[in-house]
Amino acid sequence: MKILVIQQKMIGDVLTSSVLFEALREHYPNAQLDYLINLHTMPVVENNPFIDNYILLKPEIEKRISALWDFTKSIKKRQYDIVIDVYSKLSSNIIAAFSGAKTKISYHKHYTAFLYTYNIKRVSKTNQTCGLAIVNRLQLLEPLGINLTSAKPKIYLTDQELEASKQVLISNNINIEKPLIMISVLGSGAYKTYPYNYMAQVIDQIVTTTDGQILFNYIPKQKADAQAIFDLCKPETQDHIYMGLFGKSIREFLALTAHCTALIGNEGGAVNMAKALNIKTFTIFSTWIDKDTWNIFEEKNVNESVHLKDYKPKLYQDKTEKEMKPQALESYKEFTPDLFEKKLEHFLKTLNK
Questions:
Q1: Which end of the chain is more exposed for a tag (fewer CB within 10 A), N or C?
Q2: Phi first, then psi: what are they for 52, rounded to 5°?
Q3: CA dist., res. 99 & res. 121, Å (int)
């Protein structure tokens, strides 16, 4: 038995979809379980004991139809029995359709339904704390006789990675006995990034309440933007921020975050990674992202989140979050830090316990 799971694109999606593998391994203990993902997302599923092979989709393959076709033919040669297409977009439609697998599973779309053996309709509501993103993924296993209502993504760091990151913290004068808070200062784009001046106010509140040590999550090319937020913080707050200490790769970021007390900031892959490491999170959602889908494992004092819709629902009357996307930058102005100041304060006070 050979099974292929397809989940392209974003880090958070790839990490979330990895929950399928533990369930598949339990149901098919002797099966070959492979994961088709984009090259840049590999670090979040590295060392996963339930995945046998990683098939990496490089950027050049998606740019040319001829390259995608050659890639699809290489997948067919692997002779999969089952293909689970979580991504369910044009490129994965092509790969699944021509895979040669007898059983093909994906989400229901009227224009691609003929390509798949089973077409699963997403649910729009759930009472499961794992959230819609996971509930809908687990539904893809039902045609195989696997019925789960919850599962949690996990990240697998080595002892060497954890020890190396600990020594990096100590060498940078971080006291690992005191609160250490990772700030997701920047989203994946402007429409997913809390305004810089507002984020600075949030960081000021974090330091005032916890007297904690602050790390920023950013990559080298974002240094100027991270510095801009640093400059907007109060001088006394800046004294608590270790600007030069950041993960220069995803694995380095993960290893540093594993030693943190909490991660606070913009919704995105960093938040999902922190949750997979069992690190507390406080998430600020973009004004157009569907909170019900991505507030996975919401729990008071453990994983909390805020969305403009929580405080100003009239702005969303008769509109979906995605319809709000063109107005995201304008809507952010309405999402002032004072709206969730008390909620954040309560969350922060639990970090010292």
A1: C
A2: -85, -45
A3: 22
